[in-house]
C-alpha cells in the first residue's frame, strides 16, 4: 500500500509541475532555479518583453555570480512586500562586516518597463532593482510578494515565479532585525535559525521538464545524467569552499575554522566550516562532512527542485521522453486554469484510502 500511495503522489506532483501559469500571457524564453538554504524557486524569464534585463540576469547566473549571495532585504510595510538580493556574498573568515564581498556589477541596463505588455509588479514577479535613475539596473533583483504595481510603476519586470512561491512566502515570514545585521544597516534582512537566508546556487534550466542536459530533447543522454547524479546530490551539505564538490579541500576549510565561533559575537554561516549553522565550528560539522564526502552539488538532474536526484526525477524524465522544445507548447498547454489540476489531484488522492 505504501508503494501505491507513493505512485499516486508522484503522479499528482508531476501533473501539477507541468502546468506553467503566466499571469500576463507572456511566453517564457528561459528558466532559472534559485536554490535557497530553505528551499528552491523556479522562475520563468520573459526575453521577448524584457530582452535586455533577461540577458543581463542570465549573464550573472551563468557566471555563478549569485551563488552564496544572501537576501539583504525582506521589506514589509502595509500592503508593500518584497524580497531583495543579488548584492552581497556570505562573509569570508575574518570579515568584520556582512557586506564586504559584493557581487561585481556589470554595465547598467536601460529601463524596459512597458505597461502595454502587461508585465507589472504583481505577486510573484521578478524585477530589477535600481536607484532613482530609471536606467541604473545592474545585478540587484527583487521578488514581489504582494501587488506592488502602484508602488513600483516604472520598475522593469522580467520574470515570474512558477514554482516555489511558498518558499518565497516563508522567507518573507521570517524574523528580521538581527542586532548584528541591523548595526550595519540591514535590519530588514530575514533571519533563519540565527543565520543568513542565502542562495546556495542559481542555475539556468531547460523549459522542458526532464531535459536535464538542456539540449532541447528529453532522451537517453538525460537518463545518463540522472544515473550519474542519482543519490549523490548534497547541495546543502558541507561544501565549505564553494567548489561544488565535497572533498578534502573542505576538510581543510573546517580545520581552519575549528572552534573560532562562539555563536554570540560572530554572525556565523556554514561557508566558514559551520555545516549545521549552529554558530560553532565543531565535531558535528566534521561528521556531516564525513557522511557527505564524495558527493557533488551538481543540480542538473534535480528535475523537481527538491535538492535530491531521486526517483521522482526519473519519473519526470520518463513522462516526457522523446519530447523536444519544439513541442513544448503542446506539453504545457492546459484546457483550464490551475483549478483543473487541483481537481485531478484531489481525485487521484481520493483513490488512496489508508487501511488499518
Give a structural overview.
There is one protein chain. By secondary structure, the chain is an alpha+beta fold. The chain has a domain at 22-205: Cyclophilin, CATH 2.40.100. It contains ten helices and twelve strands. The chain has a ten-stranded antiparallel beta sheet. A two-stranded antiparallel sheet has the order 10-11. Helix 1 (2-17) packs antiparallel against helix 10 (338-351). The longest helix has 16 residues, at 2-17. It starts with a helix and ends in a 5-residue tail after the last helix. Residues 1-21, 260-271 and 330-356 have low confidence and may be disordered.
Topology of helices and strands:
Layout: H1 2-17, E1 30-36, E2 39-45, H2 51-62, E3 69-70, E4 73-77, E5 80-85, E6 88-89, E7 125-128, E8 141-144, E9 157-163, H3 165-173, H4 179-182, E10 191-192, E11 195-196, E12 198-205, H5 220-229, H6 248-257, H7 283-292, H8 311-320, H9 328-332, H10 338-351
Antiparallel strand pairs: 1-2, 1-12, 2-9, 3-6, 3-12, 4-5, 5-8, 7-8, 7-9, 10-11
Q: Could you give a quick summary of the protein structure above?
A:
With 356 residues, the chain is α+β, with helices and mostly antiparallel strands. The protein has helices spanning 2-17, 51-62, 165-173, 179-182, 220-229, 248-257, 283-292, 311-320, 328-332, 338-351, and strands at 30-36, 39-45, 69-70, 73-77, 80-85, 88-89, 125-128, 141-144, 157-163, 191-192, 195-196, 198-205.
